[in-house]
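Retro notes (design track)

What went well: tokenization of the new backbones is finally stable.
What didn't: we kept losing track of which sequence belonged to which structure.
Fix going forward: every design gets posted as structure first, then sequence, in one message. First example under the new rule, 87 residues:
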């Protein structure tokens, strides 16, 4: 994964988190919906002010690199993404 530099920052820290969402029993279901998943995660991150650096669907999991502000918790971010993806 290549990281890009920010041209303007609203905060002083850059906290990057690698999130991996797996399917139940690693069923291969993400590749058929690859473009839809990437668009959905990008939209969710934009709505909730998360900075999505990269998103890669694989056969049994979905890997994403997200940059958060220090006041945003990782648990709440994962909960928000999973909740919005399930609807």
């Amino acid at each position: 994964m290549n990281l890009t530099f920010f041209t303007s920052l609203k905060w002083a820290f850059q906290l990057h988190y690698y999130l991996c969402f797996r399917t139940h029993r690693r069923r291969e279901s993400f590749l058929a919906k690859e473009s839809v998943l990437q668009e959905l995660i990008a939209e969710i991150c934009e709505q909730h002010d998360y900075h999505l650096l990269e998103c890669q669907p694989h056969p049994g999991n979905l890997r994403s690199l997200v940059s958060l502000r220090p006041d945003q918790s990782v648990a709440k971010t994962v909960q928000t993404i999973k909740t919005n993806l399930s609807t």
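Added context from the reviewer: The two ends are 29 Å apart (CA to CA).
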